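ok so I'm stuck.
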Amino acid sequence: MVNKIQAQNLLWVDIKRPKKADIEFLEKKYRFHPVDLADSLSKIQLPKLSFSEDYLFIILQIPIFNKRTKTILSAKIDIFVNDDFLVTIHREKIAGLEEIFQKCVSSKKARENHMESASGLLYDILLKILNYYRMLNHTRKKIDKIEKKIFKSQDPKIVEDISLVRREVTDLVKIIIPQKTVLRKLVSKNNGYIAPQFRKHFQDLLDNSQKISETLENQKDIIESLQDTSESLASYRLNHIIKILTIFSIILGSLNFILQLYFISPGARKPENIFGLSIIMISAACLGIAMFLKKKWL
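replied:
not stuck anymore, here's the structure
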């Protein structure tokens, strides 16, 4: 589906779920390089930035949360830009991008604010779609919740919770970290497609990306440490249970030994001896428990 917005001297073309006909339209209208157009049709591509004589071509991967599967997926967006036009191509719904586009469609003031220049529009789009703090806060809350549960309860779901959060953080790292290379190239002095007055803005995007990357690495280290802690606590609890079972098996074994002596001793199985046998067995059990308590095994 091809949608267009014309504002002043800038045309914004947004293509959602591109088909072969849409790519042929771009090739005929803007003479984009066939390799770049092939990359646009490809569902999976690493982040990329390339310069040509007539335009700048950017590929980015954007993390989106799938509510049905409760997983983080990667949504690809391709951007072609020069002084006269900006073309965005994407298959999935990218909320920040669609928000700006709809504002520009419905409001002349929004068009004036966002589409004053191609550099300005590109910056506004990247600022919106590369803002991951909501996702980071979400994973941080999950990590804090897990941290409290580890020491306060023996919830069997804790291992599953840690695994799910670790997968989320790992997926975010795989998607977000490679974007820094694209942003570095974008702010380089050799990039003639970014207006000088916007270079500082794009540098801020790079700095922000670095902060997000550091936060992600920190969260990754924390969840890995929590997993190690959870495994250590589970091992400790298992050993403690085994130790208690072993102690009771020793006590019961001792009582069984006394019973065996009672039954094999001639003349011992008399009714009047039952009370004495009970006293001996209770005393043996208490002695065993007292000994284990003294050694702090219980």
